[in-house]
Amino acid sequence: MKFNQSNIKKAKKCLDSNKCIAVPTETVYGLAANAYSTKAVKKIFNLKKRPKSNPLIVHYSSLQSLKKDCLVNSDFIKLYKRFCPGPITFILKLKNSSRISKLVTNKQNTLAVRFPKHYTISKLLKIINYPLAAPSANITTKLSSVKVEDVKDEFGDKLSYILDGGKSKIGIESTIISLIRSPQILRLGGLEVKKIEKVLKKKIKINVNPLKKIAPGQSKLHYSPGIPVRLNITKPKRNEAYILINKRNKKSNHFYYISKNKNLNEAAKNLYSCLRKIKNKGYKSIAVEKIPNKNLGSSINDRLNRASKF
Ligand code: TXA
Ligand code: MG
C-alpha cells in the first residue's frame, strides 16, 4: 500500500469537522474520532452500536501529548521505551485536567491509551492537534476489520471516509495491560505476554476472564462471524468450513488455511479475514483445527473461544 499524502489530508479534514472515519493500524482497523469532542465520539458509539458503558482506546502520537491527559509510572515508561509504537494498550490514570470527553471513559478516571505503529495513522496523528478515540472498526460483538473491504462489509456506506492503509500486518488487536495497580493483562493480543514479563522482570497476572468484567472486550461472545464455531476439531462435518494451520495432503474446497506451517504470527494475521470469507460464503458452521496455546496462539485461541460462544 503506497502512502498517500492527499488521503491523509482528506482524513484530517473529516476529523477536524467532528466526523468519524475508519483508519488503518498495524493490529486492526479503527473507527476514529477526535477524543476531545463529545459530539464526534458519540458518532463512534452510534455506528458501532456500542453500549456507552464500554470505554474507548485513545491513540496518541507522542509521550508529550499523552502526558497532557494521563499520569505515567515507571512500569509504563519501561514498556513504552521497549514496545511503542506497537501493539500494546495501557490502562492509565486520567489527569483531572484532561480534555478527554467523558463519553470516551464512561466517566471513569482511567484511560486506555495506545501508540500505533502503522505509517499512515502515525502520519495522521502528527498533523492533528488532538488524540484519536478509535475502537476496532466493526459492529459490537462482530468480526474486526483488517482491510478496507472488511470495513465496508461492516458499515456499508455509513462512514464519511475510510483511510486506506492496506492489510493490517499483525491482524489481531493490541494486548491490553492495566497499570493502575500491579500490572495485569486484560486482553491477550498482538504482543506476547512473555515479552512484557521480560521487560518488567516479573510474572504478570492474566485476568482476561474475570467474574466481574473489567474490560467489556472480556465479554463471553465477541469477535463472532455469526455462525457456530467448533474448536479443536480433527474431523469436520460434511460441508463445514475447516480452518487449518498445517498443510494436509488431502485437498478439499472446504479447507481454509491461516498458515501452512503452524506459523502463529501468520495465522493471527489471517484469522479475521478467513472467518469473514467463510461467513460471506454462506457456510452454516466452522470447525477449527487445534491451535497451539503458546505465543500468539494464545491470543488466537482467546478470540476463537469467544467466537465459539455463539
Ligand atoms: O488494537 C487495538 O487495540 C484496536 C486498534 C484500532 O487500536 N482497538 C481496539 O479497540 O481493539 P476496542 O474498543 O475494540 O477494544 C478496546 C478494549 C475494550 O474491550 C474496552 O472495554 C477496553 O479496551 N477498555 C477501554 N478503556 C478501558 C479502561 N479504561 N479500562 C479497562 N478496559 C478498557
Ligand atoms: Mg473490538
Task: From the structure above, extract its key features.
binds threonylcarbamoyladenylate, DHBP synthase, 10 helices, ten-stranded mixed β-sheet, 310 residues, 2 domains, alpha/beta, globular, binds magnesium ion
Description:
With 310 residues, the chain is an alpha/beta fold. The protein folds into 2 domains: 5-206, DHBP synthase, CATH 3.90.870.10; 229-307, no CATH class. 31% of the residues lie in helices and 16% in strands. The protein contains 10 helices and 14 strands. The protein has helices at 5-16, 38-48, 63-66, 74-83, 102-105, 119-127, 148-155, 193-200, 264-280, 296-307, and strands at residues 21-23, 30-34, 57-59, 70-71, 88-94, 110-114, 132-133, 175-178, 184-187, 205-206, 229-230, 241-244, 255-257, 286-288. The strands form 2 sheets. Strands 1, 2, 3, 4, 5, 6, 7, 8, 9 and 10 form a 10-stranded mixed β-sheet that branches. Strand 8 (175-178) and strand 9 form a beta hairpin. Helix 1 (5-16) crosses helix 6 and helix 9 packs parallel to helix 10. The longest helix is centred in the C-terminal third of the chain and has 17 residues, at 264-280. The radius of gyration is 19 Å and the shape is globular. The model has no long low-confidence stretch (mean pLDDT 95). The protein binds threonylcarbamoyladenylate and magnesium ion (MG). Magnesium ion binds at residues 135-136, 144, 217.
